[in-house]
Design a protein that fits this description.
The strands form six sheets. This protein has a seven-stranded mixed beta sheet with strand order 3-6-9-8-7-12-15. Strands 1-2 form a two-stranded antiparallel sheet. The protein is 33% helix and 12% strand. The protein is of the alpha+beta class.
């Protein structure tokens, strides 16, 4: 009996599945009354007993013991007739458990090409010869040991793990190249270790871990991409593309998302999980457990029933934010990233970082600002293609289909909201919800937004109180602007010239344009104008800012308290709360009366002692006691700590 399938690293291939079927058929003859037998998978190793169905599942998931050729633990004679020279004996010595994991990764990268061969059910969906040759080359690299007689690593496995260490510990490229040279010299003659960083990078690109370099104008005017790919001068500002000797001023990293979306369907497990939102999600009226339960998702599906009819069509969210890539926060630099999140998966998989699709890395000492659309151009072009559909192979159903994807909203903080939507979040009309109905009031040198009482019922007592801003509130709530209203507001918005060049004249915004600074590039997507909810604000980010301001005011933290001298002067200008006005003082100039909403020293000590004594479950939040300083202040709190403090701990204190 040919048992070469045992050494096959692809546990999803027809050869391996048929071999497991032969083993299960063989073992059924020796089962006990309960149907139990020893499990020869790589995890149980014939030490545990399971039901035969569970054994089959284990073998498909964890693999078959490589050296268990003679099935003596399952009633076979100790010397069965195994033909000499079979692939079992010719298995490369470097193939071990970690190479099995790499084989699965390669299989995902190559799509259904792994199953081509003896699998008769895929003959109608065979991959192109060039793609098959590309995969064969990668699988050959996986079988080649790092050096002769190496039992642990193949060249490909070692390189992937070494690159992982480089990223984790932030090695520089120069130090990594020096290590490559040293290891190449130290290893035996004839080793298959790469000699340079370029060879390493090229090998990883072949696996599917690469990205595109796109040069950017010095002033963010345009990308040297597509029709401008061979230009040496910016077509807008006329500045040279390069600093010197083909070294660009800036370089955008673009990670195409289509191959990674296809890869979701090249594994049986993810290809099944991506249908969860349609086939396994529990729908219950009044319960919001998943984005698919929301009105925005339901309206989108009703407008595009052909898209929604296929559970494999991907609904995605676009998230963006800036961060400092350097360890020292004193270094002024802002790297912006754009991430796509597939919502088809279950919630516990959707929010796992392994399923985030990083699409753009935008380099700039400063934020891209209004020129954010310039960097989004390659992503938008790809999203247009994905809306029309691309051919993909579904390994779960063993059939080709048209893969379609859409971005149904964005998620960002307040500054990024302005970059993505085109509505400026500064000035008199800063509110992105109220738009032109924003209630504001100019106070000295700043603008205050104090019209929040208009959202109360008309009979509410607070509407008649003059303690808020010196007058009663009789206005109705702001309007809910429809899609047609927003599109009509965008009609008079002129075309802005991108870029930050000093020679580029700034376009003065007309009164009819309100706070719109541009027509967002997202409106080029065929479905964007019909969405019910286009932009979401990052609540946890905003909640941290609110928490810092509240705690800073309660504990009177210098530099963070909103109860400062200017705030007291504003009260005097508005003619309200005279007991809190600044009082003249012969020595200090002015004296700020104590407010009832600010802790006294004793109250601050009691509050901080309470936080020091709080015990939380492991993983629920960090040790908030470490954020309490010796002088009864709070510092160094993370976003989730602020959420727990506001939503849970402060409620107990009150």
């Amino acid at each position: 009996m040919d048992r070469s399938w045992i050494s096959n690293p692809d546990r999803l291939s027809a050869e391996y599945e048929n071999g497991v079927g032969e083993f299960v058929t063989f073992v059924r003859g020796i089962l006990d009354v309960q149907g139990l037998t020893k499990c020869p998978c790589n995890r149980c190793m014939n030490r545990e007993v399971h039901h035969i169905d569970s054994v089959r599942y284990h073998l498909l998931i964890y693999g078959f013991l490589k050296d268990y050729i003679h099935w003596t633990e399952h009633g076979e004679q100790s010397n069965p007739q195994v033909p000499l020279g079979s692939p079992i004996q010719d298995t490369p010595p470097c193939m071990n458990e970690q190479d099995d994991e790499m084989a699965e990764a390669l299989r995902d990268a190559a799509g259904h090409a792994y199953d081509i061969g003896s699998s008769s059910y895929l003959l109608s969906d065979m991959c192109p010869p060039a793609e098959q040759a590309w995969y064969d080359k990668l699988f050959e690299e996986l079988h080649n040991p790092l050096y002769d007689d190496c039992m642990k690593f193949s060249a490909l496995t070692f390189i992937v793990k070494l690159m992982n260490v480089k990223v984790l510990y932030k090695w520089s490229d120069r130090s990594f190249v020096a290590l490559l040279k040293l290891l190449h010299e130290a290893l035996l003659v004839g080793n298959r270790y790469p000699k340079s960083y370029y060879e390493t990078w090229k090998l990883l690109c072949d696996v599917g871990l690469g990205y595109e370099h796109i040069d950017v104008c010095k002033h963010d005017c345009t990308l040297f991409h597509n029709e401008h790919k061979n230009d040496d001068v910016c077509p807008i500002c006329g500045v040279s593309r390069y600093v010197r000797k083909k070294i660009p001023h800036k370089r955008l990293r673009y990670f195409p998302i289509t191959p990674r979306l296809k890869r979701l369907y090249s594994s049986k497990h993810t290809a099944r999980a991506i249908r969860w939102h349609k086939e396994q999600r529990l729908e219950e009226d009044g319960k919001l457990r998943h984005p698919a339960d929301g009105e925005a998702w339901k309206k989108f599906d009703s407008l595009y029933p052909e898209f929604a009819g296929d559970p494999r069509s991907v609904h995605m969210g676009l998230a963006s934010d800036g961060f400092n890539p350097f360890s020292h926060m004193s270094t002024s630099y802002s790297m912006w990233l754009v991430i796509l999140i597939p919502y088809n998966l279950p919630p516990w998989l959707t929010m796992h970082k392994s399923n985030y699709l990083l699409s753009l890395l935008i380099p700039d000492p400063k934020s891209p600002g209004k020129d954010f659309d310039v960097f989004l151009r390659p992503l938008i072009e790809e999203l247009k293609v994905l809306w029309d559909g691309v051919q993909c192979f579904d390994l779960y159903q063993h059939a080709s289909f048209t893969l379609r994807a859409s971005v149904i909203w964005t998620v960002s903080d307040f500054p990024a909201f302005a970059y993505l939507s085109g509505w400026s979040t500064q000035g008199k009309l800063a509110c992105p919800i109220c738009l032109e109905d924003t209630r504001y009031k100019s106070i000295q040198s700043k603008i205050s937004y104090i019209g929040h009482r208009s959202f109360l019922e008309m009979s509410h007592l607070w509407r008649n109180s003059k303690e808020f801003d010196g007058r009663s509130e009789r206005r109705a709530p702001p309007r809910n602007f429809s899609t047609e209203d927003i599109l009509s507001q965008l009609e008079p918005v002129g075309q802005s010239i991108p870029g930050k060049a000093t020679t580029t004249a700034k376009r003065k915004r007309l009164p009819t344009e309100l706070n719109w600074t541009k027509n967002s590039i997202l409106f080029e997507l065929p479905y964007w104008s019909t969405l019910l909810l286009r932009h979401n604000l990052d609540v946890i980010h905003i909640e941290k800012n609110v928490c810092d301001n509240i705690l800073g005011t309660l504990l009177d933290i210098e530099g963070k308290s909103k109860d400062n001298d200017k705030a007291r002067e504003d009260l005097k200008d508005m003619g309200i709360r005279s007991e809190l006005w600044l009082q003249p003082h012969p020595v200090k100039g002015s004296l700020k009366p104590h407010a009832s909403y600010v802790f006294t020293k004793d109250e601050a000590k009691l509050f901080c002692d309470y936080l020091r004594a709080v015990k939380l479950l492991d993983g629920y939040a960090s040790n908030i006691a470490c954020c309490v300083t010796e002088n009864n202040k709070l510092a160094g709190m993370k976003s989730h700590d602020c959420h727990v403090l506001l939503q849970k701990l402060c409620l107990l204190v009150s």
